Amino acid sequence: MQKQNILLIINPVAGRKKANKIVYQIVDSLSRNNCRTVIFMTTRKGEATDLIIEHAHDCHKIICCGGDGTLSEVLSGLIRLDMKIPVGYIPTGTTNDFAHSLNLPTDIDSAIEATTNGHIQKHDIGSFNEGQYFSYVASFGAFSKVSYSTPQWLKNFFGHMAYIFNGILSITGIRPHKVKVIADGDEIAGDFIFGSVSNSKVIGGIVRFLESDVSFDDGKFEVLLIKKPRSIKDFGRIVKGVFRRRYDDQNICFFKASKVSFAFEKDTDWTIDGEYAGTLCNVQIKNLPCTAQVMIV
After folding, report:
1. SS3 46
2. CATH of range 133-290; options 1.10.1740.10, 2.60.200.40, 3.90.226.10, 3.40.50.720
3. Model pTM?
């Protein structure tokens, strides 16, 4: 049986630095599965993309051990190379939205098993203003800053609760964004406090969609827009709808689209896969169907 060449990329500071404790376990398991493994530890934001571009050419498979942001960098690197190499994901981040969305195991033994003996799930990727890519979500507005503004030490200490603490503190800063949205030719305009374009069942561990609402390889995104509430009662209905996964309220717009553009009245902060993506007036998002191949159980 021919040995498989594996590129293992580890983010040692993701989540509660869990990857540091399991690296030998991962390598031992891969060796026992007839794999030849090259290992890199990331030391800065964006390095996983650079490592993919430099070292992915001779790989049969790539394994990412870190959070959703690290995985996003890995997939971005493959898109830039125009290569479709299966990617295994061992989630050790704080929220692990991508892993939860695909029902990937979070216990280490099962996660390693999925990377070596699982099967491939094709997954659409998002193009963000042509130069950037996201694996599961691009968003603006309420709480979007929480994921990248929460200090790493706080995430390491409190885990997912750190996002909730930081989110509560940011409530007073919620403001509406006047924007015109064009989705597959249809136009929507208004004042929105939150907007997301996603290919995931979970966003930030809080916003969740029904299984029937999401297909990872259909060439369509799920677009969620939440209007500025006019009263406390409106705000209560919005919160209740989000937690109950009911998006039929008059203050919530929920639909599918493959191409979405946003034209804001003022520069607006965006995040992609939980990382700061820029302060922008105009955003163009396009679905790249079945661009990624992710190993699942």
Report:
1. coil
2. 2.60.200.40
3. 0.87
